[in-house]
Amino acid sequence: MAMDLAALAAVPWERLATANPAFPPTEVPVVLRRLAAAGPSAVEEDCHELWHPLVPAEGRPVPEAAVAARPFLRGLLADPGFGARTALVELLTRIATPDDRDWVPALLADPAPAVRREAIPLADGAQLLHRWQAESDPTVRIPLLLAFGEVAASADPAAAELRALLARLLTGDDPVFRLAALDASSDVDPELPVRQLDLLVELFADRTARPRFEQEWFLPGFETSFGHDVLVHRTAALLRPYPDAELAFPLRLLETGRRTGDAPLRRVAMELAWELLVQRRSPAAPLLPLAGELLDDPDGAVRLRAVNILAALGPAAARYADRLADLLEDEAEDDYYDARVCDFARWALTRIGDPRGLPGLVERAYAPYRSPEGWGYVASDPRVPELTDLLAPLRAHAAALLPELRELLRDGAANREVLAVLAAWGEDALPALPEVLPLLAHSWTASHAVQVLSAIGPAAADAEAALRAAKVLDHPGNHAFVASTALRIRGDRAAALRYYTDAVLTATDPDHGPYPALAEFGRDAAACADRVRHALAYTTGWSRVEAARVLLAIDPDGPVDEAVGALEEELLSAAAEEVDLPRSFRPALEALVGLGAVRPAVRTALRTLRRSDRRFAAGWGYQRVLADQELCELIDRALGTV
């Protein structure tokens, strides 16, 4: 059946609603005609223009334009020579309704396996069973089997028969079908993967099954198969509601991989272990000694993952310092990560506080900036920190590291990142001033160079003339930044106080003036207390916390209950939501710790956060782990446990 172009023209498209008002319904017949004309030469991308107007957002009804388009899409699909049939089936699965499924059996019997796969989500239990009995292509049998689970957990008339079939396959001899049956059965019995942990380890340790995963495990909506490692991660997700089993799974895989000499199994087990460490605190205890043992693993990719875990654990890994130092010449790599074992070893040593990690640290951290390709990564994967994250905490070693950083500033590829490190080092960055000053003349680096001068303070007084000529002045919004920095490096505290006081009292928007800068002046800035109190009353989040912090600094003898209450409210509301903590949480807690008194309600919330296994710090990968460690240290200070 071909598309009926006369019928297409007869539809009053202009009256029909689309899934997205930004895409007019009159474009739908234009795309359909274009697809019909393309015929055998049509490709998947040609169908993409129909998704925005036809496919509704999750939970929304199928729009009128999609209902009108369905017969014409099926007309295109009925042509075995049409070039984008699989893409059309995928589109139809997104806009089908329960009363529009009479065409599904024909798709399930289509000569093309890819079309049959894409039709599976539309099938009911009886249709799935019928297809299972007739299907011989393993790339279709696996997605059929996986689809049994959702239907078996429903009120479908064939649910009981599907459950029985899954049970038989689960105890069969075929390892690929057994894994698929276990996966599908978890829809009916979510705890089944926990009880079958031994079986899961056995199936993933079966090396004979791995080529079949690559060859057979396809799912609707995916052009490529799911390999062994992807399926390990997919299975681990089934265990997520059960923390003990979720941790036991990679540990058992790792144990098996070590016993059998299976390096790929050890690698994927360490990937899972890292993911758990990023999300939860408790895996640190069992992973610390395991990672230490794996420093001697014969596989370089496993050693790399082990060193990464030790680096993230920081001082807790100090017992392995000598072994890590031995790895400073280990150049083993991994296909997926842009770093070597020795790079992670340097980072691990610096996290421990061992100076043996310093030689070569700057050069290697800078290497990606010299490369024409740069470097790429997945934020949650193991990776050596970016230059700023790596070096900013090493202020105690500034004297040793500054010569190389000064050379980098002259090189010029990563100036903004290097300047951020110098700003974090404050006055210890003073020897780099000759390299910093020329960067004031470039708009790309000027504001970062000004931040360095501000951090250095009065020791950079000789730089005032260069500062006042900074390229950053080209932007009017930066004039105040330069002026205030000039006062800071001049060391004229009285002039700086007058400057900030005038700026706050004359600000057009009193809630967004430079009031955070007043804190360093303490009671001397008390004239601005009413303005800051106004900001406290009419701002939220970070700005409100800043206002509370400043008010406590400049007017400690005034009414402080409102400021303290704002800080406590920020902490309590953030802690109650059980989501990643906002960036205002830490300064709010630091302000309360500075007062020396944390009231009972806040203490209770802090204890809950501290006892939780979940990491509440925002971020991904190493940044989440390190930020959570810092958060725990701050909470311990607040609770008086350190």
List the helices and strands and how they pair.
Layout: H1 5-10, H2 27-38, H3 44-47, H4 51-54, H5 64-77, H6 85-95, H7 104-108, H8 113-119, H9 125-134, H10 138-152, H11 159-170, H12 175-185, H13 192-195, H14 197-205, H15 210-216, H16 228-238, H17 243-260, H18 263-279, H19 284-293, H20 300-313, H21 321-326, E1 333-334, E2 337-340, H22 341-352, H23 361-370, H24 387-391, H25 398-411, H26 415-425, H27 433-436, H28 446-456, H29 464-468, H30 479-490, H31 493-505, H32 529-538, H33 541-554, H34 561-577, H35 585-595, H36 600-611, H37 621-639
Antiparallel strand pairs: 1-2
Widest sheet: strand ordering: 1-2
Instruction: Output mean pLDDT.
Output: 92
Q: What is the number of beta strands?
A: 2
Compute the gyration radius: what is it? 31 Å
Shape field: globular
Uncertain residue segments: none
Percentage of β-strand residues: under 5%
Oligomer: single chain
Descriptive labels:
single chain, 642 residues, mainly alpha, two-stranded antiparallel ribbon, 2 strands, globular
Description:
This protein has 642 residues and is an all-alpha fold. The chain has a domain of 100 residues. Helix content is 60%, strand content 1%. It contains 37 helices and 2 strands. Strands 1-2 form a two-stranded antiparallel ribbon. Helix 2 packs parallel to helix 5, helix 10 runs parallel beside helix 12 and helix 33 packs parallel to helix 35. The mean pLDDT is 92.
Could you provide a short overview of the structure?
The chain is an all-alpha fold and 642 residues long. The protein has a domain at 1-100. It has helices at residues 5-10, 27-38, 44-47, 51-54, 64-77, 85-95, 104-108, 113-119, 125-134, 138-152, 159-170, 175-185, 192-195, 197-205, 210-216, 228-238, 243-260, 263-279, 284-293, 300-313, 321-326, 341-352, 361-370, 387-391, 398-411, 415-425, 433-436, 446-456, 464-468, 479-490, 493-505, 529-538, 541-554, 561-577, 585-595, 600-611, 621-639, and strands spanning 333-334, 337-340.
